[in-house]
Structure formats: C-alpha cells, structure tokens
Specification:
With 282 residues, the protein is of the alpha/beta class. The chain contains ten helices and nine strands. Helix content is 38%, strand content 19%. It is globular. The protein binds pantoate (PAF).
Amino acid sequence: MRIIRDIRDMQSASRAAKAQGSTICFVPTMGALHEGHLSLVRYARTQGTLVVVSIFVNPLQFGPTEDFNQYPRTLEADCAKLEAEGVEIVFAPSPAQMYPEGAKTVVYVEGLSEKLDGLSRPGHFKGVSTVVAKLFNIVKPDYAIFGQKDAAQVAVLRRMVRDLNMDLELIVSPTVREADGLALSSRNVYLTPEQRCQALVLHRALLKVEAEAKSGETSAEKLRSIALSVLASEPAAKLDYLEIVNPDTLEPVEDTSKGALVAVAAAFGATRLIDNVLLPKL
Ligand code: PAF
C-alpha cells in the first residue's frame, strides 16, 4: 500500500493507473476509521481495480466553535486497517497542500447547503463540497463512495456532481450500526458510557417512525410527532432537528408515500450525533 502525501504524486498515480486500464474507486474520509468506513472500503473493492482512500481532516468544514482541534487523528492505526483491507493507495495531504495561501475558490451548492446540518453548521457544506471537488480533481475516480449516515452530505454532493458534470458515479452505502443500533461515527469516542446509552434514543425514534410508516402511516406531521415523543423520553438529548424531507432536495414533505428521508441530529453533552432512515416509496 502506498501512502501519498503530495497532490502531484497522487495525480500522476491516478493518471498512470487509468492509462493501464484501471478503474479507480475512491473513499474520501477524515480518518479515525471505524467499521462504517471499512464497509465503504469493502464495497469499493468490488467496484474498482484500484481503491484509493483519502484521509484529510478538512478545516474548511468545521465552524469556529467546533471540534477541528480535538477531532481524532489516528493515521498509523487507520493505515494498518486499510492495508489489511487490501487498499492500494492512501492519500493523506496536509492542510497547507490542500489550501495554500491565496486559495480563493469554493464550491457551493446553493439552497441545499443551508438545510438540515447546514442550518446549524453554517459553512459546513460549502467546506465539504469544496474539499470533495478538489479531491475528485486530484484522485480522478470513476466511482466515489459515501455513507448513508451523512444523508444531507450525500444530497449536496449528488447535486454538485450533477450540476458540474463531474465524470464519476457517486455510490451510497448503508449505515453501519453497533449491535444495539447506535450508528457508527468517529465522534462516538467522545461519548461517556452514560451518553452512549442515552444516544440510543436516536435509533429508537427512527425505528418507531419506520414501523409506523410500514403499517401505513404516510402523514409526515404524524410521523414527526411520533418521533418527537420518543426523543422526548430521553431528556439528555438536546434536539437540533428532526425533519422528514425529500432525500434529493432536502425540502420538507407532507406525505411520505413517494419515499422520504427522516433525519435527526441531537447533542449528548458536547457531542452532536446524526442519524436517519429512508422510508421507501409505497
Ligand atoms: O464524510 C466525511 O468524512 C467528510 O465530510 C468528507 C466527505 C471526507 C469530506 O471531508
């Protein structure tokens, strides 16, 4: 496995691989890899002859009061995990390489970037779309894989790929959960054992909505109040949002029969967690 830190080296490795007929499958990450990331990597393995994983904690997507400095950085352990998965290339640039002085260009998906997490994390999605566009230009993937857990991120990036005619296919892989239902997240390491237990309310609320939807309830308002009442049963959960939206536009829906995304974000202590479930078309 090659660890590439230089942008030009990564670009020439991709160019050479493509010249030899390789299909590049790319998994962008911020490191602190867990089973959720590894499931994306395993999926990538089935899609591409060359699997590239980037590890870059992107300063542009963190707000001034967010956890950029504390965000877990575990490059050595991450590389060991990726090597065991048979990954060919890890791209791990420095912030100075990615954002040299004088960098002025951003990619901004208007409208979508202010919804869900974008509302409570101003500038977050502009940071995400900018770094992902740069990574796509550097890695030149045929396929790029993202986790369903970040559903709003998926909607923003899908739109970016479509609007800017990026020549790649975006693939979304299901959320991986602990046995008790907690969605895997690099931020779970911040939780105390008590908060970890409290955080299970997110999955409980989503399961309840899913069950009600399966038994025929299609009113988004009713489903939302069902979810809110489950969330209220855990007073430690500080709710940020619970929305039922169109998964592509992130606009609220009134009726879920054409399919909908139920997305939730809440803080447990200082740790903000997100989760979601997709309700299928009836
Ligand atoms: O989902 C993430 O880990 C990040 O938002 C991403 C896509 C790697 C961009 O920094």
